[in-house]
Amino acid sequence: MFSISRSTKQARAMAPRLFPWCLLQLLLLLSISSAQAQVNITLGSSLTPQGPNTSWLSPSGDFAFGFLELEGNSLYLLAVWFNKIPEKTVAWYAKSSSNGLETPVQVSSSSELQLTKDGLLSLRDQSGNEVWSPRVPRTDYATMLDTGDFMLVGADGTPTWETFDAPADTILPTQVLPLGQDMVARSRLIATDYSDGRFILAVQSGGNLVMYPTAENSTFPYTAYWTSNTDGNGSKLVFNETGRVYFALKNGTQMNITSAEGNSMVDFFQRATLDPDGVLRQYVYPKSSKARSLWSLKWKAVSSIPQNICQAVMEGPGSGACGFNSYCTFDGTKNQTSCLCPQGYKFFDEERQYKGCRPDFEPQSCDLDEAAATVQFEMTPIDRVDWPLSDYEQYSPIDEPECRSLCVVDCFCATAVFDASSKTCWKKKLPLSNGNMADNVQRTVLIKVPKSNTSESQLSISSSRWNKDKKLWILGSSLFFGSSVLVNVILISILLFGTYCGISIHSREKIQSSQSGSSLLPPKIFTLNELEKATNGFREVLGSGASGTVYKGQLQDEHTTSIAVKKIEKQQEETEKEFMVEVQTIGQTFHKNLVRLLGFCNEGTDRLLVYEFMPNGSLNEFLFSDTQPHWSLRVQVALGVARGLLYLHEECSKQIIHCDIKPQNILLDENFMAKIADFGLAKLLRANQTQTNTGIRGTRGYVAPEWFKNIGITSKVDVYSFGVILLELVCCRRNVELEIADEERTILTYWANDCYRCGRIDLLVDGDAEANFNIKKAERFVAVALWCLQEEPAMRPTMLKVTQMLDGAVQIPTPPDPSSFISSLP
Fold this sequence. Notes:
By secondary structure, the chain is of the alpha+beta class. The strands form 13 sheets. Strands 1, 4, 5, 6, 7 and 10 form a 6-stranded mixed sheet that branches.
């Protein structure tokens, strides 16, 4: 038996009481290991995004200065934030200037912030290059104050630089901003994007405090939507300790801006932020247990200016409080602004609604006569909404039915506004600006949208057009009856295929919704002389391919319509074959993401096809030029190409395999909508056919592996090519770049696969700030691309599945590691 001494028993008895104290001490030690609360930060100190020191705290720990990881991103922001609340709300963040514009400083985990022994504060990237510095005289030390102000202090004890003097979108209690600050605060683009937004708060040197909108990526001031009207008398903007934000005047009076008085700084954190919607809101957050009993743990807006931003921003230029073609609504009970799209429209980007709305239907063609326009379109009312600008025509006196009719038959008119009291009608064209929803709107606003029953009227529309062009057909009758049997077959095929495809497409419910505004009109027969005049003798070449050359032209019609004319230049036998395939294929298709065939010419040995002109050229030019396209536009193009292929593969009456999907065959209209072009290589499959055999088609770098094997070709060859293009859109580079020094990166499909497997998608979009900000979506797109690039065709998804995965409608399982990418071979 072992005996236990008295001292040992005493120690054991005390252990339960000592354990909580020891645990508390341990937790305290752990809590300060990564962020030191100190008054003075000495020379030689440094911070890194990952490591023992990531931030410097104020003495109370209320505020921190250092690296804050961006949500859903592998980048870090150099910032000041409220440190004692679960949501680390940013009060200040560093910006760098370029060409008069400022961008947030976002760095990787390998960066370092140094307060050097020479007294300089310098942020450097992983290569040692300086990416940000206040650039002020020698500093003796730095300090993070309990007010939220981070200071650099000189030898005499005076600040040489402080965050309070260079605010981002927020001001804090005790902060004072004098006259002459042309940009006191600038809103963010959206809550999760720290890039400069569209609204600015400024203390002008003339004595006015103003708030004004700008265009994105601009500092040019539009008309102020709020002003203190204190020209010559203003002095400074003050956020005092009692919770008031006021504008001090030279005569000693104080103009109240916002107020949270009664919410003590002892009990509440406070901030005033110029929010992304252009409203300066003052927020409070419960700090003490007493305050937490009043409301839940979250920021609460207690005061704001202007009271209703929807009605405040009401002058052009610019889109207004919301984006173009959208309208603004304000909920006073929640102090909240929302942006909405009218019926038949949708946001360009749901997350970035300031980009506005676009029609979710094919806009009205100016080729339609009045009867056809009346059959296809109607005016639908919107309650309590108005767009006060964008008028281009006014009628008075007039009644509402006539106002509706005048807009329906006018291809420029997108909206009509009718005022019953004055019997006045205004016609408006796109883009609509300064949209506002309010209870005091008394006018009747009418939006032009496609009728829901257009599928039943397609034949009557075509008949109307044929009657209009009756003289053309009489003049062309000698050509029709005197030309070869083959030509007659072509013309008859156009009529039959066009009519059949139109009926079958519009008989499907889901296609009705997206194509209800479309006009399935037969291609027009042009004479060679007409096209020679239109192209000025085939002078301006837009491009050339295996089957012919494309020229730019302009029709001599009332709208001087721009066109692209493809001149088939092969030998006679193959010319007939290519011409037959191309006319029949394009003649029976109509989709917003396919280039539209307007007509053709068949005279002697001349074979020409007339398409709508795409002013923004090809994806090849858009993607691989010196200027990197915006991420949102690249996403828009990817989705457009996917939907165009989905239509070809599954939604037209005959399945079509393009066989040569590449950037040169994807064209962009004036709104950068992607449209698939060049069906000269397309393969048509019969209804009961799932594959075809043919010689190798397509372009190196985009060709699916099965082209090199003795197996049938299916629509999955287009899926493969789309996968390559999707990676090019994400990374903004060509699939094969032999000049790259790093051999691992030479072939994009290999490189993307390696990065995905290693969880380093950020390497694929290195240097692309927008893509890095949207890194989760970029990762999703890469995963979809790798599914499309599977060597075995059966493993690749259909284009329907592809669109669902891109849209985020379905989960994306991890794609198998492809064994090879044969398309990369010569």
